[in-house]
Design brief:
321 residues; Rossmann fold; two-stranded antiparallel sheet; alpha/beta; five-stranded parallel sheet; Helicase, Ruva Protein, domain 3; 11 strands
Length: 321
């Protein structure tokens, strides 16, 4: 595959900025570096993230650390069954002094919105996020308000507790760019974490290493990464392979292909390249695709996972050269 030059110098500031943010997250959250990097790449690609992991591994702390690292406005919502859509988006309230209605913005009007246990709220409340995630705007009583850039939704889910929950519908899962897990830290890291959190929690002293304007600039730089036509066809081949897989009830959508390219472009930017490589697509495919695939009942009963199907698809799909 031909490349438009091999220089790696144009994106050096972006490389340093992304590296600094990842390192800053590592001061607070004891997770694999690649996991933290994917979280930052999701922000750079202007996407949204599902953190699906066991309680107590640092999901909320990761979201707070990311917002603080970029000095962004931060909102946190605990989703519960009695929550209403207006609790998320905001509501029009009658002002007796002015004798007219005025809009009071909801928690969604922030750079980073953490939705804790998103599957605890009813589908009606979950759907309140659809417009803002896809179009970065909120419409209330016929009036549309734009959300400020950068805007990112980070949602958490418990992978083992399903009683009293409302699983996210396919349309909403498809709007989440990636799904990642933090996992349990190694023994030495967990011991270090116990010392930190019971003496001087590192989140309290975490300082910004960039700002919201830097995040917007990184996103704009990522969009300019060159993608050869053969790589577009490679991504489409991956998507079509999932659609033809008999083990799947639902394969990957065109939106999934757009998400892969956006995150892959962010990865190329983080590596200091002005062009995309097949390895960029391979590196992000599992995190971007696995949660979008709906397994057929017989495949699910055998213990097969979306991650396994994505890896198999990557192995059998020819890579452009």
């Amino acid at each position: 595959m031909s490349e438009p030059g091999s220089q790696r110098v144009e994106s050096v500031p972006a490389v340093e900025a992304i590296r600094a943010i990842v390192d800053n997250l590592g001061r607070v959250v004891h997770a694999p570096e690649e996991t933290l990097r994917l979280c930052v790449l999701c922000l750079v690609s202007e996407g949204h993230l599902i953190l699906e992991d066991f309680p107590g591994v640092g999901k909320t702390m990761l979201a707070k650390a990311l917002a603080r690292s970029l000095d962004m406005s931060f909102s946190r919502m605990q989703f519960t069954p009695d929550l209403l859509p207006s609790d998320v988006t905001g509501v029009n309230v009658f002002n007796q002094r002015s004798n007219e209605f005025e809009f009071r913005p909801g928690p969604v009007f922030a750079n980073l919105l953490l939705v804790d246990e998103i599957n605890r709220a009813s589908p009606k409340t979950q759907a309140a996020l659809l417009e803002c995630m896809q179009e970065q705007q909120v419409t209330t009583d016929g009036v549309t308000n734009q959300l400020a850039r950068p805007f990112m939704v980070m949602a958490t889910q418990n992978p083992i507790e399903y009683e009293g929950t409302y699983p996210l519908p396919e349309a909403q899962l498809d709007r989440f760019t990636m799904r990642i897990a933090i996992g349990y830290p190694p023994l030495s890291e967990e011991a270090k974490m116990l010392t930190e959190q019971t003496a001087d929690p590192p989140l309290d002293a975490l300082e910004p290493v960039a700002n919201a304007a830097d995040a917007i600039a990184l996103a704009d730089e990522a969009k300019a990464i060159f993608v050869e036509e053969s790589l577009n066809r490679y991504v489409v081949a991956l998507l079509r392979s999932t659609r033809g897989d008999t083990r799947l009830y639902l394969g990957a959508s065109p939106r999934a292909g757009i998400a892969i390219l956006r995150v892959a472009k962010a990865r190329a930017l983080a590596d200091g390249r002005t062009y995309l490589e097949p390895d960029d697509v391979k590196a992000v495919a599992v995190a971007v695709l696995a949660h979008r695939l709906i397994l057929a009942p017989e495949a699910r009963s055998t213990g097969l996972t979306g991650e396994q199907i994505v890896r198999e698809t990557l192995e059998k799909t020819p890579v452009p050269v």
